[in-house]
Specification:
- Strands 1-2 form a two-stranded antiparallel sheet.
- The protein has one domain: Hypothetical protein af1432, CATH 1.10.3210.
- It is mostly helical.
- α2 crosses α7 and α2 packs parallel to α8.
- The chain contains eight helices and two strands, in the order ββαααααααα.
């Protein structure tokens, strides 16, 4: 392996069997089914999840989280026009992964990652015709779903004090039951909402 090759020439494997270049992403290479597949197999909360009623449910995907964000925008915030952005707000993670929040909020640690993330976010935005910066309502919906996840599926030992150092906004809590679907089911759910929302966009246009 030639480690001296330009980063722009280095590819990653995708679930479609096609190459993708995370250091030089092209919008035409962004694929909704690849996004759904990769997000359905990527764990939220760095895997620190457990369903309160079902001991065998320990995996919670970014794909399922993204569906709840889209639903919150539609049903709670009454912004169906932003729902597709909500569904795809973490789409770049399919290509560049993610950092857990303590690391992401360290400027020194996150700086090189952020450069790559911005490249891939731009490619996703161009592919789906999103603005360069997502509306603040998407972040509000994201935080509301995070708050629901914290209350339902993230274990918190009673001996620990949880307010100091907290990096999540719990002002709003999404009124959804977190199901913790298996990856294949999460992928199907994500794609069904993607198809519905893109159809709604075409009709509205």
């Amino acid at each position: 392996m030639n480690k001296d090759r330009p980063l722009e020439s280095i590819y990653m494997h995708t679930s479609s069997g096609m190459k993708y270049y995370p250091f030089a992403p092209q919008s035409e290479h962004v694929d909704a089914e690849v996004i759904a597949h990769h997000l359905a197999t990527r764990a939220r909360w760095n895997g620190a999840t457990q369903h309160v009623n079902y001991p065998d449910r320990i995996f919670y995907s970014v794909a399922e989280h993204s569906v709840y964000v889209a639903l919150y925008l539609e049903a709670i915030m009454r912004r169906p026009d932003l729902a597709l952005m909500g569904l795809l707000h973490d789409a770049s993670e399919a290509y560049n992964g993610d950092l857990i929040r303590p690391l992401k909020y360290s400027a020194e640690f996150a700086e090189p990652f952020k450069k790559v993330e911005l490249l891939n976010e731009a490619a996703v935005g161009k592919r789906f015709q999103f603005p360069a910066e997502l509306p603040p309502e998407v972040k509000i919906a994201d935080e509301a779903v995070c708050a629901a996840e914290l209350r339902q599926i993230v274990p918190k030992h009673p001996s620990e004090e949880w307010d100091s150092g907290k990096m999540h906004d719990e002002e709003r809590v999404a009124p959804f039951e977190i199901e913790m679907l298996l990856p294949f089911e999460a992928k199907k759910l994500f794609l069904s909402h993607f198809e519905r929302l893109t159809m709604h966009r075409r009709v509205a246009a």
